[in-house]
Each structure stands twice: as structure tokens, then as C-alpha cells.
Specification:
heterodimer; A: alpha/beta; Rossmann fold; 2 domains; six-stranded mixed beta sheet; four-stranded antiparallel beta sheet; 10 strands; 23% strand; globular; B: mainly alpha; MetI-like fold; 76% helix
């Protein structure tokens, strides 16, 4: 397919009316190629979550054009071209782990046998086979997030949208989840748009890191991690965290985050997730 | 030696359990002991002070009537219980559907608010005489309607509250899945509201019995505990009147306990986050 996974052109998003206007995004252009892992990073209020919500068609841009695999975002949502995971796992507490993973398949009318096989595959993939019949309240935060990721993968989307999915996890669980995500992405070959505010996380996971700044939210720079000598996101191992290119890319992202004078003087923004 | 979570140990707690199993013995025994003390004290007081039966009959006299008239008390309970049950089910359906409508359409919510407030304030049983003349005094319809209205109000209010508890992340998820309005109601809104519906029902269950019973005081067909209480009191058989009151207590408790168990069952996965 020649169409990129995501193509964002000239997007503005303005919240509120007249005097109370907040410019959440200004002049954003971004392309994510098929199979590419791109992270959005920036301080609170820089519009990274807003941008992800626009791509997911959970919100509409004030101006500009967003295409997902060449279709307008709304059509892509209706066609279920992406899977999505949020910071909160957002599992339905009254459904079992299997029931939660099955939900998108069930909503879209897949028949029972297909659902059963797919759910078994996904539970295996995220390593929760023993917990298929558990309810979310019986799982730890990391396990819940794994269920949410399995659910996002249920329909084998070619694009994954992830809004700080590991944001609420402790550092140890977080690194393990990152390793697993790299593995999962390599297996599925999906493109990923990943929102985070952790620099090492962004660098470790991504092909490219998009650095954003607030007031108004816009892209200040893009770091191509592969140019720093790291393997492509799909071929990475946890050893990448110790490579020189990794530290180089981290430093590069950091200087982009702190280097611009606008960021330094910007008022603390509202996190408009 | 290993610090990893043992999946077998963690997997053991997957079966849903009612919190009722955690109740300690003392919680059950203490009130029973108090009840026994009160009854013994009551018996002694009535004998010692030579209190006349029309003021307060002795527990032993009441017990005599209970054992001697068990069939009548059970018959009366069945009539009153039937009215209360039909009223409760009807009222619950009206309450839930009403709340679902009010939750979906702001206008309905605003229109219904004053009516619901009025219904919550007026003693519904006061309508009984009017209903008897509307539907005829030979049928139980009036009593059922009184019970139904008493139930519909708390169920409506609680369900509406429950519907408003739907979490933003669940709503986003449903949008991302391009779920239809009915799918959203079935998959998210109703399950979210369910524990609240049953909380409303538990509150309403004793109201239903009280309403059905008191409605009998105002006329209507023969049969039912309320009728029996008034007629025994009118024929100066006070211990028998008290025996019927005991039947009413048992009936009320039965309704309460059953709805409480149902509520616990449906809220077993809704632990406070």
C-alpha cells in the first residue's frame, strides 16, 4: 500500500470560543509510514494527546486534513483501521479478561468460533493465558494494560494508537512492557503512534520521535533514532538501552525539549487529554 | 527465591465471591442476642406490670396466635407479597426505562425532574383511595400501582445516577469502535448502571411491601396482611393483629434480603477504584 499510515497536513485545533480560546495545536504536519513507530513527546498541554485523538477521530480538527491509510479519519474509524489504547486501561470491570479482549470482535459481529480462536491467540501473545477467566479487578495495573493492548490488537489493525499506555505503571513494569511492545510490533508489523512524556521510552520504542511544545501546541523537531545508529524499532532488543546511539538520541530529544525559548517561558498548560 | 508473581496462586482467586462470605460470627450473633433479650424483657414486663393485651400483648400470646394462624398469616403474606412483588417489578421497569430515556435526552430529564421530585415527596399511599375508585375496589390493581410508584422513584433516581457514571475512557473506546447507540447502551451504559439499579431496588424493596400493606388499610378486596391487621384490631383480637404485624416484618425482611443479595451479586466487580 502506497498510502502512509497517517498523514496530517496543516492541522489546527482550537478549543473554546472567542476570548477564552485555547490553541491546542497549530500548523501540525506529520506523516507516519506504514509499519513505522513514531512517538509524540512533550510537556503537559503540548497537544500530543489531542493530536492522537484527532487521528482516532475522537475529536475533529478546526482546520487541516487528517488521513489514515489515505482515508479521512472518520472513515478510517468507521472501517476500524486502527486499534487504540489509553493511559487508563479502560477495561470493562464486569467482563472477564477474555470478554474484554473479545469486545471489539463482538461489537463488529465476528462469529463465536473466530472470536474464541483470536482471543486465545492474543491472550497467549500478552502472556495472560492463566487469567482468561479473571476479572480486571483481580489483575495488577501492568496486567490490565496488557489486556488493553491485546484488545487494541484484536482486529489485527495496521495502525496502533497509544496514549501514554504505560504512564501509570512503575518503572520496572514499564520497561518490561516496552520490551513486550517491541516484540508485539515486530510480530504484527503495525505502524504505531505513541504518546508519552518519557524520553527514554520514546527513544527506545521509536523509529522517529516527534518533539512538541505547548502554547500553541506544535512540532518543534523530529529526531530520527535510526540515524543515531540504532536498529529499526521492530528489530530492537533491550540491549538498545545501553547503546551509544540510544544516549545520543536521548540527548538530542532532551535538547529539543528544553532548548526552545518558548518552552521555557510557557505557562504550565492544562493537560487536555 | 523468585520474586515473580506466581500465576497459579494469583489465578486461584478468579472465582467471583460475594462479600457475604466474609461476615463474622459476632456480626450475626450480637443482634440475635439483643433480640432475645428484648423479647424476654418484654414478656417479663407485660406479666409483672399486668399490661392489658389491647395496650401491649405478651410475646407468648402473639406467638400462640402465630402458631395457631400460620396458614392465615401465610395466605395474607402471599397476597400482600404478590402485590408488592408485581408492583416492584413494574415500578423497576418503569424506573429503569425512564432513567435510560432521561440519560439519553436532556429534555426528558429536565421535564421529568419536577414530576419525580413531586412523586418523591407525596406519600404514595395517599393515592390508594383514589385508585380504588378508578380501578374498582374488588381488584388489587390499586395496591399494585401504589407499590409500583413507590418503587419507580428510587429506582429511577439511582439508575440515572448510575448512567452518569459511565467513564470517559469507556465512551472514547466505544466511539473508537464505531459502536452504534444501542451497542453502547448494552455494552457499557447498562452494565455501568446495573449496581446502581439494584441499590435503588434494595432501597425500594421495603417501600414496596410497606406501600402494598398500607394501601390495604384504605379499602380494596379482602385478603392481605394489612386488611387482616385492621380486621383483627377491629374485633379486639390484639395478639392476632400483632401476629399479622410479625408476618409483615418477615415479609419486608424477605424482600430486603433477597434484593440485597442480588445487589451484592451484581456489584461484585464494581469495587471502588
Amino acid at each position: 500500500m502506497a498510502d502512509p499510515a497517517i498523514s496530517v497536513t496543516g492541522v489546527d485545533r482550537i478549543f473554546g470560543k472567542s476570548r477564552k480560546q485555547v490553541v491546542a495545536l497549530k500548523d501540525v504536519d506529520l506523516t507516519v509510514a506504514a509499519g513505522e513507530f513514531v512517538s509524540l513527546i512533550g510537556p503537559s498541554g503540548c497537544g500530543k494527546s489531542t493530536l492522537l485523538r484527532l487521528v482516532a477521530d475522537l475529536d475533529t480538527p478546526t482546520t487541516g486534513d487528517i488521513r489514515v491509510f489515505g482515508k479521512v479519519a472518520r472513515q478510517a474509524r468507521l472501517d476500524q483501521d486502527y486499534g487504540i489504547a489509553f493511559q487508563q486501561a479502560g477495561l470493562l470491570p464486569w467482563r472477564t479478561v477474555a470478554g474484554n479482549i473479545e469486545l471489539p470482535l463482538k461489537l463488529h459481529g465476528a462469529d463465536a468460533a473466530v472470536r474464541k480462536n483470536r482471543v486465545a491467540e492474543l491472550i497467549e501473545l500478552v502472556g495472560l493465558t492463566d487469567f482468561a477467566k479473571s476479572h480486571p479487578d483481580q489483575l495488577s495495573g501492568g496486567m490490565q494494560q496488557r489486556v488493553a493492548i491485546a484488545r487494541a490488537l484484536a482486529e489485527s489493525p495496521k495502525l496502533l494508537l497509544m496514549d501514554e499506555p504505560f504512564g501509570a505503571l512503575d518503572e520496572i513494569t514499564r520497561e518490561r512492557m516496552q520490551n513486550e511492545l517491541v516484540k508485539i510490533c515486530a510480530e504484527t508489523g503495525a505502524a504505531v503512534l505513541f504518546v508519552t512524556h518519557s524520553i527514554p521510552e520514546a527513544v527506545f520504542l521509536s523509529d522517529r520521535v516527534v518533539v512538541m511544545s505547548p502554547r500553541p501546541g506544535r512540532i518543534t523537531g523530529i529526531v530520527d533514532v535510526r540515524a543515531d545508529g540504532l536498529a529499526g524499532a521492530h528489530d530492537r532488543t533491550e540491549r538498545a538501552r545501553d547503546e551509544e546511539g540510544f544516549f545520543h538520541a536521548v540527548a538530542e530529544v532532551r535538547s529539543l525539549l528544553h532548548g526552545t525559548p518558548e518552552t521555557a517561558t510557557a505557562a504550565r498548560g492544562v493537560d487536555n487529554r | 527465591m523468585t520474586t515473580a508473581v506466581d500465576p497459579v496462586a494469583a489465578g486461584r482467586v478468579t472465582r467471583p465471591r460475594l462479600p457475604i462470605t466474609d461476615v463474622r460470627w459476632s456480626t450475626v450473633v450480637a443482634p440475635l442476642a439483643l433480640g432475645a433479650l428484648v423479647i424476654v424483657g418484654w414478656e417479663l414486663l407485660v406479666n409483672a406490670a399486668d399490661i392489658k393485651p389491647f395496650v401491649l400483648p405478651a410475646p407468648s400470646a402473639i406467638w400462640e396466635q402465630i402458631t395457631g394462624n400460620t396458614a392465615n398469616i401465610v395466605d395474607g403474606s402471599v397476597v400482600t407479597g404478590r402485590n408488592a412483588l408485581i408492583g416492584m417489578l413494574g415500578g423497576a421497569v418503569v424506573g429503569v426505562i425512564g432513567a435510560a430515556l432521561a440519560g439519553s435526552f436532556r429534555l426528558i430529564d429536565q421535564m421529568a425532574a419536577p414530576v419525580v421530585a413531586a412523586l418523591a415527596v407525596i406519600p404514595i399511599v395517599a393515592l390508594a383511595p383514589v385508585l380504588y375508585s378508578m380501578f374498582g375496589a374488588a381488584v388489587n390493581t390499586g395496591r399494585i400501582i401504589v407499590a409500583g410508584i413507590s418503587v419507580a422513584v428510587p429506582v429511577y433516581l439511582n439508575t440515572l445516577r448510575g448512567i452518569r457514571q459511565v467513564r470517559a475512557v469507556h465512551r472514547d473506546l466505544m466511539t473508537a469502535y464505531a459502536a452504534g447507540p444501542l451497542q453502547v447502551i448494552r455494552a457499557v451504559t447498562l452494565p455501568t448502571a446495573t449496581p446502581y439499579v439494584f441499590t435503588g431496588l434494595r432501597v425500594a424493596s421495603s417501600l414496596a411491601v410497606i406501600a402494598a400493606l398500607i394501601a390495604e388499610y384504605f379499602g380494596g378486596p379482602i385478603g392481605g396482611l394489612g386488611k387482616s391487621i385492621t380486621s383483627s384490631a377491629a374485633s379486639s383480637n390484639y395478639p392476632l393483629a400483632w401476629a399479622y404485624v410479625s408476618g409483615a416484618i418477615v415479609l419486608g425482611l424477605l424482600f430486603y434480603v433477597v434484593t440485597l443479595l442480588v445487589e451484592l451479586w451484581f456489584s461484585r466487580h464494581h469495587k471502588p477504584a
